[in-house]
Amino acid sequence: MALEIIPFDATEFLDTEESQTHLIEDAFESGDAGYIAHALGVVAKARGMSQVARDAGVTREALYKSLSEKGDPKLSTLIGVAAALGYKLTATRVDDSDAREDERRSA
């Protein structure tokens, strides 16, 4: 008997704003561009990709493409999606001890 494998869909488990925020925060803390794009895409799907696309000022198809794991969204798209999801992007200076820790992890 063949084993049936069902694709995992994270959107089924991200049904609260808190769980969505945790995913987005984790993605940004990782510094991995692919993970950030993917996390925003997962949250956008959980909230309704068509509405997020409209609110961000891009087409739904372009949003799917740019927020895939292999996507590389333009900064304007990233800012628009973040705003559509209720977030704003900010920059925080990394102190020297954080920078050294990041270098050790990537070595």
From TrEMBL:
Question: Which Pfam families does UniProt cross-reference here?
Answer: dnstrm_HI1420
Enumerate the GO terms in the molecular function aspect.
DNA binding
InterPro entries (UniProt xref): Cro/C1-type_HTH, HI1420, Lambda_DNA-bd_dom_sf
Q: Tell me the CDD domains matching this sequence.
A: HTH_XRE (cd00093)
Q: Which Gene3D superfamilies match?
A: lambda repressor-like DNA-binding domains
Report the PANTHER family cross-referenced here. Answer: SSL7038 PROTEIN (PTHR40275:SF1)
Name the chain's protein.
Answer: Putative addiction module antidote protein
Q: Which organism is it from?
A: Rhizobium esperanzae
